[in-house]
Write a sequence for this structure.
C-alpha cells in the first residue's frame, strides 16, 4: 500500500515563496488600480479624482487580542484629539473590535498570512505595532506606508525578541533608557542604520498601575481580613527551550503542589501554539482542581492581582508583577540560551536577567528541595522592596505620562511626514512645470524656424 507523499516546506523557504506571491499580487494590484483610474477618468470626462485609497493617518496592528491593553489607552487619547486611526487585529474576538470611538475604526484582518497579506499593501502615514519581525519573514514593509513605529508590550528586554525583531522599524518607543542603550549597541555590532529611539514611558503600565491602585483602595475600604487566606503562587513562564515548563515540566508543578498553596499556572500564550504537545500533556496530568488552576485570560491583570508571589524565568511578566503590583518574584535559573535571540549579539547578560536578584530570589537546582520555605522567606523578606523601586525607575520612565508622550510623538511625526510629502509634491510640480515650459518653448522655436 502506497502512502501519500507529504510536502514539507521549511519556514525560510515558506517565507520566500510567500514573498514571491505577495510581489506578484502587488504587481497585479497596482496594474489593475492604474487601469481603473484611467477608466474612471475617461468615463467622467476627465474630471474624476481617485480618492478611494487615501492613506490612513495611523494604522495600528495587533497580532493577538492580548495586546489590546497596550493599544487601548493610546487609541482613546488619539480619538480624544480627533485623530483618525484604524485598529487592525488578527483576533476575531479582540475586545478592541467592540470599541465605539468616533475616530477609531476597528477591523479583523484575519490570522497569520491573511493578516500579513493585508498589511503588506497597507496605505498609511504611520504603522504602529508591538509585533517584532517586520520585513524579516512574511510581514513585509508596504511601499505605501511611510513610517513604522514599534511599541514594546513590556518594560523589559527587547533583546529577548527572536533575532532581528526590531531591525526594520523606523522608530521604537522605549519605556526605559536601557532599551535605548541595548538597541544602539545592536545597531553598532550589526552595522545597522540608526533608528529613532524615543523615551516615552509605558502607557499600558500606567493604566495597570491606575487600575491596581483603584482595586487596592476599594479592598482597603472594605477592610477585608486576609489573615486566614491561603497564599497564592503564580507560575507564569516564558516559552521555548529555555523556559521553566520546557526545562522542568511536570516535576516543577508537583513541587509547587507540595507546598499546599493555591497554584495558578499561566503559560505564555505562544506555548499553546509552539509547544502544544507539552501543554496538552501537562494540562491532562494536572487538571483544574481546588488547589490548581490553569489561567488563559486575555488580560493577565486578575491573575497578577490575586497572586502573592510570582515564579517565572525570563518572561516580561516579571516586570508587570514586581513594578506595578510591588510584589516579590522568584526566578528559576533555566540556563538561558541566547542563541535564538537578539541578546546573542551583545555577548552579555540581558538587562532584565541582570536585575532579577534585585527583585526577588533565584531558584536553582540546589535550593529547589524546599520550595515552600523559599516562597515564605521571599514573601517575608522586606529588603527587596527598595531595590524593586529602583528597578522600576530604571525600566519605567515618565510614570503616569506614557500615553500623552506617545500620542504627542505620533501626532508630531504625522505632521512632519505630511509636511515633507507636501514639500516633495510641490518640488515635483515645479519640476514638471519647468519641464513643460521648456518643452513649450522648444516647440515654439521649432515652429518659428519652419516659418
Amino acid at each position: 500500500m502506497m502512502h501519500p507523499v507529504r510536502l514539507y516546506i521549511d519556514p525560510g523557504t515558506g517565507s520566500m515563496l510567500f514573498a514571491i506571491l505577495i510581489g506578484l499580487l502587488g504587481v497585479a494590484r497596482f496594474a489593475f488600480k492604474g487601469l481603473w483610474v484611467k477608466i474612471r477618468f475617461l468615463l467622467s470626462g476627465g474630471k474624476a479624482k481617485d480618492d478611494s485609497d487615501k492613506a490612513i493617518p495611523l494604522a495600528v496592528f495587533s497580532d493577538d487580542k492580548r495586546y489590546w491593553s497596550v493599544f487601548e489607552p493610546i487609541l482613546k487619547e488619539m480619538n480624544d484629539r480627533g485623530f483618525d486611526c484604524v485598529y487592525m487585529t488578527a483576533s476575531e474576538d479582540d475586545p478592541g473590535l467592540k470599541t465605539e470611538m468616533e475616530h477609531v475604526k476597528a477591523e479583523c484582518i484575519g490570522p497569520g498570512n491573511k493578516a500579513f497579506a493585508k498589511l503588506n499593501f497597507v496605505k498609511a502615514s504611520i504603522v504602529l505595532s508591538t509585533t517584532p519581525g517586520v520585513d524579516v519573514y512574511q510581514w513585509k514593509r508596504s511601499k505605501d506606508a511611510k513610517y513604522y513605529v514599534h511599541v514594546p508590550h513590556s518594560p523589559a528586554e527587547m533583546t529577548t525578541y527572536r533575532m532581528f525583531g526590531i531591525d526594520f522599524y523606523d522608530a521604537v518607543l522605549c519605556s526605559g533608557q536601557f532599551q535605548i542603550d541595548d538597541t544602539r549597541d545592536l545597531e553598532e555590532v550589526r552595522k545597522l542604520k540608526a533608528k529613532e529611539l524615543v523615551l516615552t514611558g509605558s502607557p499600558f503600565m500606567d493604566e495597570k498601575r491606575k487600575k491596581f491602585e483603584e482595586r487596592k483602595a476599594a479592598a482597603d475600604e472594605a477592610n477585608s481580613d486576609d489573615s486566614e487566606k491561603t497564599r497564592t503562587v503564580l507560575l507564569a513562564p516564558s516559552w521555548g527551550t529555555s523556559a521553566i515548563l520546557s526545562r522542568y515540566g511536570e516535576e516543577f508543578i508537583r513541587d509547587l503542589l507540595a507546598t499546599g498553596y493555591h497554584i495558578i499556572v499561566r503559560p505564555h500564550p505562544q506555548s499553546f501554539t509552539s509547544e502544544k504537545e507539552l501543554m496538552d500533556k501537562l494540562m491532562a496530568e494536572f487538571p483544574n482542581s481546588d488547589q490548581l488552576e490553569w489561567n488563559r485570560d486575555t488580560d493577565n491583570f486578575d491573575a497578577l492581582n490575586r497572586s502573592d508571589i510570582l515564579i517565572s524565568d525570563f518572561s516580561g511578566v516579571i516586570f508587570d508583577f514586581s513594578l506595578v503590583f510591588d510584589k516579590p518574584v522568584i526566578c528559576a535559573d533555566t540556563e538561558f540560551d541566547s542563541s535564538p535571540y537578539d541578546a546573542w549579539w551583545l555577548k552579555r547578560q540581558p538587562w532584565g536577567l541582570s536585575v532579577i536578584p534585585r527583585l526577588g530570589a533565584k531558584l536553582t537546582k540546589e535550593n529547589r528541595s524546599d520550595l515552600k520555605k523559599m516562597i515564605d522567606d521571599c514573601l517575608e523578606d522586606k529588603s527587596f522592596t527598595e531595590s524593586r523601586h529602583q528597578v522600576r525607575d530604571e525600566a519605567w520612565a515618565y510614570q503616569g505620562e506614557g500615553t500623552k508622550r506617545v500620542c504627542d510623538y505620533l501626532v508630531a511625526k504625522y505632521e512632519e511626514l505630511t509636511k515633507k510629502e507636501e514639500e516633495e509634491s510641490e518640488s515635483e510640480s515645479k519640476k514638471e512645470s519647468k519641464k513643460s515650459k521648456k518643452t513649450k518653448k522648444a516647440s515654439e522655436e521649432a515652429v518659428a524656424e519652419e516659418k
Observations:
- The radius of gyration is 27 Å.
